[in-house]
Amino acid sequence: MNKTETYQYLTDHGVSYEVTEHPAVYNIEEMDALGLPHPEWGAKNLFVRDDKKRNYYLITVMEHKRVDLKEFRKHYGLRNLSFASADDLLNIMGLTPGSVTPLGVLNDAQRRVHCYFDAAFENGRIGVHPNENTATVWMRTADLVGIIRAHGNEVDFVEIR
């Protein structure tokens, strides 16, 4: 799904959302420089894989948190983790670097990606790209998690310090 198709999908599934269009951004610093509304809802997304390339994970955290992959792996009983390649990102979620988003999981036809959301988002709202890095979609986290689970991907909320 591209940006327009993502908006239509959200509408078709009864998800209330707000969109902020902006120039393409590739990192949190560029996002911050835009002065977007709702910075407290901003998310950073890490697409990672295990050392056997069997399991893929999307870790979504508050935008200014750091994730220690070694600690994360140990805490959740996973194999060694490293960042997935651009090819894996494109083949599995149909995304390019800089556009990583939980909404890309809706392109995961084989339901290979397990999503981990920062518990700080659990009862609030979140801002993510709509499969392109030229906009941010603001919505309730529960709605986002609901459509990902309905698609068939696993989702867990986790403590990220």
Question: What would you note in describing this structure?
Answer:
- The chain is an alpha/beta fold and 161 residues long.
- It has one domain (3-158): YbaK protein.
- 27% of the residues lie in helices and 27% in strands.
- The protein has helices at residues 3-12, 28-34, 69-76, 86-93, 141-151, and strands at 17-21, 43-50, 56-62, 81-83, 113-118, 125-128, 135-140, 155-158.
- It has a 5-stranded mixed β-sheet.
- β6 and β7 form a beta hairpin.
Fraction in helix = 25-40%
- Major sheet, described briefly? 5 strands, mixed
Low-confidence stretches: none
- According to DSSP, the number of beta strands is 8
Which helices and strands appear, and what pairs or packs with what?
Layout: H1 3-12, E1 17-21, H2 28-34, E2 43-50, E3 56-62, H3 69-76, E4 81-83, H4 86-93, E5 113-118, E6 125-128, E7 135-140, H5 141-151, E8 155-158
How would you describe this structure in keywords?
161 residues, 3-stranded antiparallel beta sheet, alpha/beta, globular, 5 helices, 5-stranded mixed beta sheet, single chain, YbaK protein, 8 strands
